[in-house]
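Sorry to interrupt, but I need a hand with the structure work. Could you add the entry underneath, on a fresh line?
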Amino acid sequence: MQPRLHQWLDVANPKRLLVTPGLPRHVWLLQAGVALNFLGNGLVAPYLIIYLHLDRGIPLPLAALAVGSGGILATVSGLVAGPLIDRFGPRACVSLAMAANAVAYAAYTQVHAPWQAFAVGLAVGIGTGAYGPSVQALLTGIVRPDQRGAALSQQRMSAILGLSLGGLAGGLIVATGSPSSYAAILLLDSATFIGFASLVRLLPNPETASRKVASAFARFPNWQRSEAELREVRKQVTYALVAEEDDMEKVAATVEALFTLLQKSFHP
């Protein structure tokens, strides 16, 4: 029993939980954005229905339905996001989802009637539903397959940390009793979405690498028959990936897997 206990204690070591070695720096940047995003969620989530009811005079059942309607639409939005991610890439979809939520939450400050609350709630649902699959696709695209478990766990911890800090900050702001406290947390929430969208633009863009790889093969059409062209196209493909990815192990593995697959396809 004693060795098993030591194994569990090693896994639960706070240092291992807080610092996940080996993950690319782009992952840490994305996790910071996730924490920022959920910080905004924590600011607003506990008080949104209260705001619509007490500050805007919307009946409590309608206020709750208006907020809940966004969750229903988020399910549909998440399904539609898949094909959009395939077409435009996860980075672009995350940015668009965050931009949509920034506009929607800022629009809550202009709500004065039930129909407006429903309209804004549905707008929130569009961005929220698209966010989930987009950010997961973005994360899994910038780590190796063997790192995905650690990266996804770290992302969940980032979300919980941001949500907790946001709830605390939101409570302190509302507790001031200022007439503008609800508007303040809504605008702060909107700012966190803009901040996350800005961070996402610093991450690698797989679409750029794909275009460069395709261009390399187009420039050297005889790479299958010429050793010189094969070496050159491998070099160009490697350069294209290195420009978007700082994990050299992942780049080397990707290049090797790509050319192994191509050689099997042309020489079964």
User: Anything to note?
Assistant: Residues 1-18 have pLDDT under 50 and may be disordered. The chain has two domains: 24-200, 206-266. The radius of gyration is 23 Å. The first helix runs from residue 2 to 11.
